[in-house]
Specification:
The protein is of the alpha/beta class. It has three domains: 2-32 and 52-78 and 407-442; 84-182 and 378-401; 225-372, no CATH class. The chain has 13 helices and 15 strands. It has helices at 17-24, 56-74, 81-88, 111-116, 128-140, 162-166, 235-247, 283-293, 296-302, 353-365, 381-387, 407-427, 431-442, and strands at 2-3, 76-77, 91-97, 117-124, 146-153, 173-178, 185-195, 198-207, 210-217, 226-229, 250-251, 259-263, 320-324, 330-336, 341-345. It has a five-stranded mixed β-sheet with strand order 10-12-15-14-13. Strand 5, helix 6 and strand 6 form a beta-alpha-beta unit. The longest helix is centred in the C-terminal third of the chain and has 21 residues, at 407-427. It is elongated and about 135 Å long.
Length: 443
């Protein structure tokens, strides 16, 4: 048995109220006429309190009324075999549809299965993994039933992973339905790259398990998105570092994404170019910090720098460490500013760490080309069979999702007991009738 509102069971203490009222009530002694007191020996008067149950049946009925009402407020739920079978006979289904797919491709199933569908909701959107998470959350709040997720998609590789399937609770079934057949080849735009010769548009062609790309010249003025603040004598080294980075074809950032790098010698305090640091609140800046911090080349080269930033303020908010020097202090730290990402570095302008840091920043602030929609390789049928599973029977439902409990039977019992209590009260003799009976007995 489960209780929908278990805190209401504390109301069972109210069943003691009729008993306490009977014990604490002040009963006045009744006067009886007596012929004569002449032959009685005088004694000291003493008060006597009576606690004799005059009508134990009526008292028990009143206590039962309060107990039944308290139990009804608690909301009992009996998990009987018939109730579990009724829950198992119905299905709550979430259909996750790829943006390019349609539910028309969904296998209809048998007639009995269609009748068993109690609730159904469709989730559209990209990426597919986010729609699966939203579908699982909706199923967690559905009434007790067998629950399943049906994925309708071409199922290209990378659209979902084993981790996405493992995140779905085990009692939720998962079924896959391919909507369309992927084409053998596809060409898609893959952003712009910044080179030594200018800006070029990149096209990627996917053919089976092979990937090829080509760069096409575009009429755009190349704009280097990173301002470097350093000593006057460092300018030639900085220009050489920027040229080396552009020769490796970094991603071209849009005009509203800029960065400023301040080269601070390891022994100096905060420079003027880094004094306006504020916490990062812009989403693209936060994404860029994460991507820079995950750059393996930057972490590898940072260990060759002997000393990091000397000022301890670079190791605390609003600064976030990007890489650590050999002495354990931050080699590079990032923060926000009014209109651009701010990065402070202790690397010398002639150090290999400087061009590696500039390349990492340039790639991080540019948007990542999404080639998932252009994928032509499907997930293997064997993998989808391994990920598939039937919906599990209902074992222990969430109490807050149960649409009907058994409290109505207790409320019917309360009504019946109230009628019984009224009938018992009417059977009791009144005070006038009791006094007349006592007078007759004394006479």
């Amino acid at each position: 048995m489960f209780w929908v509102n278990p805190l209401a069971l504390f109301a069972l203490a109210a069943t003691a109220a009729p008993i306490l009222i009977h014990i604490l009530i002040q009963r006045r002694a009744e006067r009886f006429p007596f012929p004569t007191l002449r032959f009685l020996q005088p004694t000291r008067l003493a008060s006597i309190r009576r606690h004799v149950l005059e009508d134990p049946v009526l008292l028990a009925v009143r206590a039962a009324i309060l107990a039944a009402a308290a139990l009804a407020l608690a909301g009992p739920l009996l998990l009987t075999a018939s109730r579990r079978q009724a829950w198992d006979r119905r299905i709550v289904r979430a259909i996750v549809v790829d943006g390019d797919s349609s539910t028309a491709a969904l296998a209809p199933g048998g007639e009995g299965e269609q009748r068993a569908v109690m609730m159904q909701r469709q989730f559209d959107g990209h990426p597919l993994a986010d729609s699966i998470r939203r579908a699982a959350l909706w199923l967690e709040t559905s009434p007790p039933a067998r629950r399943e997720i049906v994925l309708v998609s071409p199922m290209p590789i990378g659209s979902i992973t084993h981790a996405d399937i493992a995140a779905v609770p085990g009692e939720i079934g998962i079924r896959f339905q391919r909507s369309v057949t992927l084409p053998p080849a596809r060409t898609a735009a893959a952003g712009h790259v910044l080179t030594s010769d200018g800006v070029r548009a990149r096209e990627v062609t996917l053919t089976g398990d092979r990937t090829s790309f080509r760069d096409v010249d575009v009429n755009a003025v190349p704009v280097w998105p990173i301002d470097v603040v350093s000593g006057a004598g460092d300018r030639p080294a900085i220009d050489s570092a920027i040229a080396a980075v552009r020769s490796q074809r970094v991603w071209s950032a849009p005009s509203d994404r800029r960065a400023r790098v301040v080269l601070i010698p390891a022994s100096t305090a905060v420079a003027d170019g880094a004094s306006d640091a504020v916490p990062i609140t812009v989403p693209w800046m936060a994404d860029a910090v994460v991507r820079i911090a995950r750059d393996g080349d930057l972490h590898a080269v940072s260990r060759s720098v002997p000393a990091g930033l000397a000022d301890p303020r670079f190791a605390s908010a609003p600064w976030q460490t990007l890489a650590v020097a050999a002495d354990g202090r931050p080699l590079a730290a990032a923060a926000g500013s009014s209109d651009r990402l701010l990065v402070a570095s202790s690397a010398d302008a002639t150090s290999l760490a400087s061009p590696v840091l500039l390349r990492s920043i340039a790639n991080a602030i540019a948007p990542v080309p999404d080639l998932q929609a252009a994928e032509v390789m499907p997930i293997a049928d064997e993998v989808l069979r391994q990920w598939s599973r039937p919906p599990a029977p209902v074992v222990s439902p969430r109490i807050d999702t149960v649409e009907q409990d058994d409290r109505r039977w207790l409320w019917l019992a309360v009504v019946g007991l109230l009628a019984l209590e009224t009938w018992l009260r009417r059977l009791r003799p009144t005070a006038v009738e009791r006094r007349a009976a006592e007078d007759a007995r004394v006479a």
